[in-house]
Amino acid sequence: xxxxxxxxxxxxxxxxxxxxxxxxxxxxxxxxxxxxxxxxxxxxxxxxxxxxxxxxxxxxxxxxxxxxxxxxxxxxxxxxxxxxxxxxxxxxxxxxxxxxxxxxxxxxxxxxxxxxxxxxxxxxxxxxxxxxxxxxxxxxxxxxxxxxxxxxxxxxxxxxxxxxxxxxxxxxxxxxxxxxxxxxxxxxxxxxxxxxxxxxxxxxxxxxxxxxxxxxxxxxxxxxxxxxxxxxxxxxxxxxxxxxxxxxxxxxxxxxxxxxxxxxxxxxxxxxxxxxxxxxxxxxxxxxxxxxxxxxxxxxxxxxxxxxxxxxxxxxxxxxxxxxxxxxxxxxxxxx
Length: 336
What we know:
Elements: H1 3-24, E1 34-39, H2 49-64, E2 68-73, H3 81-89, E3 96-100, H4 123-130, H5 133-143, E4 147-153, E5 159-163, E6 178-181, H6 185-193, E7 197-200, H7 206-212, E8 217-220, H8 222-227, E9 236-243, E10 247-252, H9 253-257, H10 261-295, E11 299-301, H11 306-323, H12 326-334
Parallel strand pairs: 1-2, 1-3, 6-7, 6-8, 9-11
Antiparallel strand pairs: 3-10, 4-10, 5-8, 5-9
Helix pairs in contact: 2-10, 6-11
């Protein structure tokens, strides 16, 4: 082969290689996609409140933003709840978290006032409180901790005691039962004052612990019992309605601060839509879930809560004082 021909072919190869390399480079004018990782401990089922809120937020973002890409991580796929929230404070791991306010008590103890036992009169009472000064105050305090509140959502039903082998028909039946609850002082105190032996545990460990007998039961809303398939490892639901278990949607402040104004508007609108839909379905979904659980073979028992209410007032005062939230409890009680 002649030298000139060889040089020509070599030059041609270089040109092709250069063209391929250039095509692989990002377009300077192209928009960078930001990942929005939405974490929840709930199962991937829109029949439960946490996942449905997460799903609406993700769907809205993906339908209304060219620069944000939301992805769901249900069933604690990114780690247990506390670990996820801790990471978000640092701007690592999850971008958003949808779950009960109880886990947030570990970061701002004043938020524990939302989880005091036998305090919320009904859904309207909760909405008025959270859409007012209490919600604004706690959101502002949380933002200083690196967590921005995007929405205050409903639990689809009050939390009830669920047991595996022993039916709880009267308060004394709870005595000594190992009942799983959230790892926060407020929840632990509430279960203990009811006579149970409160057993704090990560939510992801509950199913197996019920199955193996490590726990005698746990407490949660009917929707979560249904979608988590806890009817497979438990038999009885007692309508204690001891805690409401508010749900909050939060985003990492570090992630939020990195968004453009347009991106912030999309995320805020997504959370507001999810909150509105969530609240509109609360009563209906609670009733539907209880009906479905009964059809699955669970036995649902009422209980006289007089003794619980009698003990609740002093306990609320005691816990609120320890939380430094007496001012917030006063507002909650006075809200009509």
